[in-house]
Amino acid sequence: MNGIPLLSLLTFLPLVGAVIALFAKTHARLVALITTLISLALALMVWTRLPGDGSIGLVERATWAPSLGIEYHLGADALGALMLVLSAIVTLMSIDAAHRVHREPGLYFALVLMLESGLFGTFTALNFFHWFLFWELSLIPAFFLIKLWGGAKRGPAATQFFVYTMAGSVGLLLSFLAVFLATGSMDFETLGAMAFHGTLEPAVTAHLGPMMMWLTVGVLVGFAVKVPLAPFHTWLPAAYSEAPSPVTMLLTGTMSKMGVYGLLRIAIPIFGPQIAQIRTPLLVLSVITVVMGAWAAAAQKDLKRVFAYSSVNHLGYCLLGIFALAVPAAGTAVLTSQAAALNGVILQMFNHGLTAAALFWFIAMLQERSGGERWIDHFGGLRKPAPVLAGLMGIVLFSSLGLPGLNGFVGEFLIFRGVFALSWVSAAFSILGLLVTAAVILTVIQKVFTGPVPEKWAAFPDLHGGERLAMVPVIGLMLLLGLLPQLIVNSVNPTVMNLLAHWRF
Amino acid sequence: MIQEAAAAFAPQITASAITGILWLIPAFPIVASGIIAVLKQPRRRASAALAIGSLACSLLLALAAMGHVLAGRFNGFAVRETVNFTWIQVGAAQVELGWVLDPLSAVMLVMVCFVGLLIFIYSTGYMAHDENFTRFFCFLSLFAGAMLGVVISNSLLLLFMSWELVGLTSYLLIGFWYQKPSAAAAAKKAFLTTRVGDVFFLLGMVWLFAQTGTLLFYNAGKGSIEPLRLALLLVTPSHLGMTAATGIALLIFAGAVGKSGQLPLHVWLPDAMEGPTPVSALIHAATMVAAGVYLVARVYPLMQAGVQVSQSGEVIGSTTALTVVTWVGASTALFAALIAVAQNDIKRILAYSTVSQLGYMMAGLGVGGVAVGMFHLITHAFFKALLFMGAGSVIHGCHEEQDIRHMGNLKIEMPFTFLTYLAGMLALSGVPIFAGFWSKDAILESTHTWDVSRAPFYMLVFGAFLTAFYMMRQVSYVFFGNWRGHGEAHESPSVMLLPLMVLAFFAIFLGFLGTPFWPWFRAFLDGHPAEFGLGAFKEPGLLALMGTSSLVVLLGLGIGWRLYGNKSVRADDADVLEIRFPTLWTLFENKFYIDELYGVTVIAFYAWWARVADWMDRRVWGGIVTGVSWLARVGAQASSLFDTDWINGGFDKSCEELANGGGLMAGVQNGRVQIYLRLLALAVVVLAAILIWSSRG
After folding, report:
1. What one-character DSSP code corresponds to residue A65?
2. Is residue A401 within 8 Å of A476, Cβ to Cβ?
3. Residue of A177, A167, A127, A222 whose CA lies nearest to B687
């Protein structure tokens, strides 16, 4: 558009930044900050230049290896663009939070920027090969960030994270290989159109036999690991808790969204009818993710593990919404419910990213001030010496709880609106998740911030000016989106309608 | 018994200027709260002035709104004006918000602003020495704004959002003295218990939205509780053999049960007394806990949907939803009154009394309609706020003592507190002439003629007896007998006493707005003209009923005075009832062991499931992963023949280089990754081969 390949620019800018950061040594963080600020500006430009009808815009195409079905094909609709903005915001937050990286800062920030590039590529690619490259590209820096800068058990955590996600990717890769063999295309739009017109499954069956369902499961497992969907989530608590908190911000804020995004961009459009067939077991797993995620969080003593499981719970609502809407459209009532659920899912993706990243930022601050303390029971009464920290983190915690007026509520409300009409039993069971999450979050507040102040925390430093300043835009955004969700929904809703119009179950 | 028959006045729909700016009423305190939040702690005067000033502005607007409704009434209109707008668009449907001005919201607005303002003023005295004075007014203002938001909402969603904000501020204020572990625990308990109701409320809301396509209450005939949509809900069958109308009504009522401390979610309210006393008066007596009652009143057409109406406009029987409301209310009224008899904390007695009175309101709504329940809500707000603030004055005067056994004879040292408290106590007990008499009698009267069952009537009459009894017990302990406290008691400053006197005036005279011979309040809410006439007394049974209830009340007061009045006792003496009925006393004193019951059921269930979820994660899912990885290692070693160096070699090398470069060899467990990757690569190659082979075949 306008001759500027905006999406390519956005994707490759962090890679350039990464190379510079690698050699900038002590100034690496500054380089990373500037790069990400430019990225954010570009992502916002993408957001403002979306086509009004919700279709995919800013398309860039170039031949790459046509005989293999590989094409350079980029594009963004409101779903992709929102994820671009989120990735830029969370990366910015993460870089801001990572001001204590003393070992190899050049390498650290280069990896962070590489990860950002991987995210941008994943959220814009429309050809499987290209998409898969970036999907994997984001994995490698994440692995090294955990492995080299993580906590005491970083080795096994990083390994588990890498192998698990990799194993999931194998399913994806094989499934798409099969689809390519059957259809000769790796293009999401082409394959989506085939699925919509009902020609995809016959093509696969003709070439490979009746294995469409196996391919679907392969793709689903790939995404299920990434989001995660129970029981494919066991890598997550270890990875989230062992990664340095700024990296955890990236993992939960952005990388978990890759899985949800993949479901919406790839799995549902191409494998919709098959997903609709196994909708019930998928819904059961989603409800288990929601409920058991929250309950497992209740059992944790390590703050980072608490919020790791809480993330599982929050992303479970996204999965719930996605799988609940996988029903054949039957009239406007169902369509409205599907639209509500999908709007809710996309909002929840953004809001969870923002809130979870902010939460882990606060945990980083708590750790800095307490000498790395993470055990809930070792804190107490911090509201007295650090009222601003307590107040601001309190706002973020209540956002995570889903308090109306803050960003977390709207997405959950819309998801429940959609899911209740489409599968009321799932909605009814999932409210347990809402309750248990509230209990978990209030327990954290109670144990960390209230009660008498232990002597060792009597001089617990409050947030200093710079930190307060850094939190203002984050919390401002939470309030803004809580009160005026239309800022996002006005753009997302046309995309939702466009997506639903191209999906077939 | 006439319920919600078609209004005699023509409805007026267009919005006037005052309705257009109705949103300012909650906005003033919310903005004030925002400003106070960024004020520095020492700016006490400024913060109190902001809070009080903003609420005073709200009160003026509320009075103007009330004036508008009254003027409309004078001109023969039943005012119901709404302003609605689309919040977000999802699919082809709109999520709408809006506000409404009608007699119900106008009455509630005036009450909340007025009582709130008095309590704000009182708080400047009560909290004068608290180090977090500014924070207190920040939270109070936020609360007032949220509560007023609940009141003006014309959209169930906006109501729910304000409702949750009210819950948040209640949480913050109960836990205001956060350094006390008991206060922090009580705050958490309050939030979570009400949240149990709220998640059902949320379900009811999304259900209503899904069925009717709107969450607006009134929208020129297209609102969710207007006849058109209600008819639709009534014919929609739902799960468990109910109509959608019943299911939604019950789910919404669950929210009200949580907020209004009804059985079985009442457990949080007595614990909420950990908050500062003005908070108890404002939130946990006069306004927030009444929000549940208000909610039921607001969605009353839904609750009542499908009820049979006789030709003369009288309701025959009841609906499932209203029957549930009535039974819950009546049970709560009696249950909490029994507990109140055996409590010794001055605020806890009032807390259980509040639970009990909220039960009366619910029962009144269930059998008598909006006006009956709402009238008791309004009178109760005045006299219960008075009682709580009087109790605060007593606590203040007795050096933060809350145990009534450590008080006594305060009528001498605290004469103003005593006289105003007495007015509140007589109003609560339902002594004739006082406000509580008229409103409680209206409830008794309607339960007396309820078609479904007579039991709620007897429960409520017995509750009335207990109310008179425990209030007399409390007043005797506190104001009569001998002084058993420590130090010397002193009267409170006038900034605290003046609000008490204003409230005492209303506790005595407010009831005349709704007497049988001039039922103005009911007529006002229902949109009928009110007629003055002594003819009402000729209604069969009315005088007898009034006489009976007065007798019951006097009996309660009398027995209370006989047992406790003007006795010289020691603080550690056992209660006279405890000596006579030790088993019952223990049962009441321990609140029927409901907290303990929840401890071994709900709480234990929660903790157990948390452990199960954690165990599943570590052992079952984690175990499977460990098993698979073990298999993977064995498999990989066995098949190293097929190793694909072009993948792993480069990867290993870069891994090593990075690790060396970082000087971080330690802790990097080389080996495992390669093994996994070898297997992965192998699997990819094999599966790809199979795929390609099968596609050719």
Report:
1. E
2. no
3. A177
CB atoms < 10 A from the CB of A164, how many? 24
Q: Tell me the residue type at B233.
A: L
Task: Write out the two tokens for B246.
Answer: 């019943």
DSSP, res B9: S
3-class secondary-structure state, position B275: coil
How many other C-beta atoms lie within 10 A of the C-beta of residue B201?
Answer: 28
**CA-based nearest residue to A270, from A346, A362, A189:** A189
First vs last Cα of chain B: how many Å apart? Answer: 83
Amino acid identity of residue B392, one-letter, is: G
Task: Note whether B688 contacts A398, CB cutoff 8 Å.
Answer: no
DSSP H helical ranges for A25-127: 28-48, 78-97, 105-124
Q: How far is A58 from chain B (nearest CA, A)?
A: 24
At residue B96, what are phi and psi to the nearest 5 degrees? -110, 150
B662 closest CB neighbour out of A104, A164, A181:
A104
Beta bridge partners of B100: B82
Interface residue of B206, B611, B616, B633 to substitute, partner A, most A CBs within 10 Å: B206
Cβ-Cβ pairs closer than 8 A, A with B, add up to 217
Tokens, residue A35: 């790069």
From chain A, the residues in CB contact with B617 under 8 A are 234, 237, 292, 296
Out of B184, B672, B691, closest to residue A178 by CB:
B691
3-state SS assignment for residue A392: helix
pLDDT one digit per residue (tens) for chain A, 505 residues? 456 889 999 999 999 999 999 888 788 899 999 999 999 999 999 999 999 888 888 889 888 888 777 888 999 999 999 999 999 999 999 999 988 887 888 899 999 999 999 999 999 999 998 899 899 888 889 989 998 898 888 888 888 888 888 888 888 988 988 898 888 888 999 999 999 999 999 998 888 888 889 999 999 999 999 888 888 888 888 889 899 999 999 999 999 999 999 999 999 999 989 999 999 999 999 999 999 999 999 988 899 999 999 999 999 999 999 999 999 877 888 899 999 999 999 999 999 999 999 999 999 999 888 888 888 888 888 888 998 999 999 999 999 999 999 998 999 999 999 999 999 999 999 999 999 999 999 999 999 999 888 888 888 888 888 889 989 999 999 999 999 999 999 999 999 999 999 998 8
Of the candidates B487, B479, B472, B476, the residue with the CA atom closest to the CA atom of residue B415:
B479
CA distance B599 to B608: 12
Full-model pTM = 0.90
| Surface of B (645-664) touching A: CB under 8 A | 658-659, 661-664
Residue B466 in 3-state DSSP? helix
Cα–Cα dist B50/B53, whole Å = 5
Partnered with residue B95 across adjacent β-strands are B88
CB contact at 8 A, A219 and A266: yes
Amino acid at A290: V
Q: Is B519 helix (H, G, I), strand (E, B) or coil?
A: coil
How far A4 CA sits from the closest chain B CA (Å)?
Answer: 32
